[in-house]
Amino acid sequence: MKTIEVKTGKPYNIYIERGIISQTGKYVRNITGAIRAVIVSDSNVAPIYAERVENSLKENGFETSLFVFEAGEERKRLSTIEQMYMHFYEHNVTRTDIVVALGGGVTGDMAGFAAASYLRGIEFVQIPTSLLSQVDSSVGGKTGVDLPSGKNLVGAFWQPSVVLIDPDTLDTLPKKFFSDGMGEVIKYGCIRSSELFKRLETENAADIIEDIIYECVSIKRDVVEQDERDTGERAILNFGHTFGHAIEKLGGYNSITHGEAVGIGALMLTRITEEKGITTNNTAQRIYRLLDKYGMALSTDFSLKEIVKATRGDKKSSGKHINFIFLKEIGKCFIQKINIEEMPEFFGV
Ligand SMILES: NC(=O)c1ccc[n+]([C@@H]2O[C@H](COP(=O)([O-])OP(=O)(O)OC[C@H]3O[C@@H](n4cnc5c(N)ncnc54)[C@H](O)[C@@H]3O)[C@@H](O)[C@H]2O)c1
User: Fold this and answer.
1) What residue's CA is closest to ligand 1, atom 43?
2) pLDDT of amino acid 312
3) Ligand 1 center to residue 133 CA distance, Å?
4) Side-chain half-sphere CA neighbours of 345 within 13 A
């Protein structure tokens, strides 16, 4: 088993082990005296994994209940949160009880937000089951929902009490979502670990998935410990995301997955910074080859001009500037503020 300690305002541990979800009750019992545990899951994940988690919680003395919502980003809204609150209320959840998020990033973000706000805050546990949630979204305490006007516009910082990562759950994850998570994995290699990037180039990710999860979560832990509230350094986790969000937005959020959009965003940006002499030669080509190796999209029909125009509405912009993350080389990055007015000139569009 691999263990990672996170020293945020509220410290917690992340455990990575095959089969760990069957021991959920033991780990949750170690961190709480709660009577009730509410499992929150979606309609794809619950039928496969909820029983195992529920049995383990019961064996460790918890009264359990299960709240299931229809899978998909479209359900990541306040109306689902309200249904969750009602479920908590009907099952007599008190401030000392606990919420168990079992599923991908959508489940974790919503269950975390409901936990952050119900009765002004109760504890929650993350059991991420998609690659994206195992390497990224289950760690760091960002929780929330979408509004019709944009993604993740409402939310709270609320750290989990423990994170249980079971790589075996990836066996049932549809291939499309595995590639989606690979977008984030490649991002971590680009921004902080040339070693990880090299391993992705020379080995097969699926064969070394536990090491990959451990590496990515360790990087995210380091960044989040430095900047828990996302006011500085944490922006580096957005490498590829500014163009990526624009590509997703232009495609109406259903023509390309998030991870693939991030991959293309990283590639396009690095081609430009390489041409400008900011990034070491051959970096974009290495990113291209890695995206290709893992079967990810390599280009978009939208022009750079359209993408640059769409980034102006990105929520990561602060006032007159947008924070771009540039690579110096694989494994080394920095934050570059670009004035929104000067973007067309900078990108030559
Ligand atoms: N909080 C953060 O820091 C953070 C970071 C990155 C992304 N996010 C959020 O994460 C969300 C995306 O996460 P996601 O890609 O995990 O989406 P998701 O939760 O919708 O999961 C993707 C799909 O895979 C299915 N699934 C998940 N695990 C499975 C398994 N083991 N077996 C079979 N099916 C499985 C889900 O039902 C869903 O259909 C977005 O809403 C994004 O905003 C949050």
Assistant:
1) 152
2) 78
3) 6
4) 5
